[in-house]
Amino acid sequence: MSLMTNAVLNLYAITLLTVLMGYSLRSEWKKDRQHRLYLAMVVTTILALAVDILSRFDGLQDPSFPLINRVGNLLVFSLYPLLPSLWVSYAYCRARGDLRLSPFALGLLSALNAANLFMVAASQSTGWYYTIDAQNIYHRGPVYPFQHVITLVMVAWSFGITYRHRNNIDKRALFSLVVFPLPSMLGSILQAFVYGYAFALVAAVPALLIVLLYAQDDTIFSDYLTGVGNRKKLEAVLREKIARCSPRRTFSFVLLDVDHFKKINDALGHETGDQVLKAAANLLKSSVRAGDYVTRYGGDEFCLILDVSTRAGLDRVVERVENALEALHRSGALPCRLSFS
Asked: What is the pTM of this model?
């Protein structure tokens, strides 16, 4: 594929990603770690596509073109595992909440990226990944597939994270976590067998759009403080549940408020009050199933919308909430006692 054709297609993909990035930078979006990771994936893909253009000066003999070709390929191979690395971090963030990577996960990601960088550096003299001959023509090396193996390991890792925490992930976010790696994985396989275009990078564009539609663009339905659904989400879910209701398929609605919340604010300050609300939201989320909903009605009031049709089922939910409260109190994570009415 010619330099011009690659450049046009890559620039088209960059334009689409720039639109996604602009949309993602809207002022009303929360700038938490999840959103920063998403933006990092978009920026990384834009950078990789731009650098890929530099690596397409194959066979061109102008005095400056061989240097551009060598620098471009060096950067492309160096950056290649960065996007799947960010995706593993994003999968952890979506599956487990806004948590940092464990030392083991961080160490393994660092080791995989370091192994790739070592291979890139060694290839400049050994040709393991690739060589560029005297005619400025690129050739794949004998261990070229190793880079794609690294990517597939990270993709499999992200699937494992998603599967392990599937019961704690919202359905829309779960869909994006499952689907996102598939286009990039298919692109990596195509790129391993077909030379001439950056299939894996271009495949990341629809994958990032899927994440935007199904996981990222949920802030309109999210409470800014606690991260659970807001009043708008509550009304939307209730309308859907009522529309689907039948004598054989019903649901349950629970309204709770935090006991003595005004006293907590007055005695310990609004910062502690916010901490209590966040703890209450996380506790409720951990006490219901993935298909159930936790929303903040307003102030210190929360709502649970549950696929439960019997009093016994409701009693089990209440028991899980009470057990979670006891565990929270034993941990000493809050400076005050949390309870619900």
From this structure: 0.69
